[in-house]
Amino acid sequence: MSKPFPPMTGALWVWPPQAAVARPMPKSKIFAHAKPDSALRALFTAQVDSITWAYKLAPETINLPASPSVPEIEIFEITLKIPELNHAVLSCIDRAIPFPILYNLRFEGYTQPVAAYKRFSEVDPSKWVVSDYHEAPWQADGFVRPGLPIALDLQGLYELLLRQHLSVPARAGESLRDQLERMEELAKKQAEERKLTLRLHQEKQFNRKVEINAQLRTIRLAVDSLKN
To answer: Which of 10, 69, 94, 209 has its CA 20 to 30 A from that of 77?
Structure first.
């Protein structure tokens, strides 16, 4: 690995040995269920070396009751050919596997946790809805990992594990869905901020610069509010 990685702040744990599956997940099986187009298949070929169904967190493996929204939690390890993975690959896997999944991306002695909030659709409860993917920092193999956090059921455990992937902390009493919606709004405002900053650097007229600066101040206040 050529670049240094920051120290890990969470999102990697010692998985219970009784939850181990250690079963290879053929790409062909994922393709059969998700039916990706040729461009997405090419991404799998270029970026993914192998996929392993590593662990299954379920009532029979970790003795926590299931909930209707989280019957079990899968842990997938993906060994990469390059130190990055297009999120479209993860979306394809999530379409093929009808359970919440936490991903551990592996590359040259490092692991990166990635996850998206996966829930049943409120419009069609037979379908899953997957939010944006969130990446925790890379962590060197051999780093001491904590055990799983204490939870009353799989729903609570899933939310605790997923929150550790999020770069913006939860506010006091904030639900996971509210936290994720705030992060989505923050991402939109940050994109607006970048566009306005570029326009400001390119603008030549003084009066237009003043207007853009005023817009930037408003956007930056909104960004700070959403972060805190």
So the answer is: 69
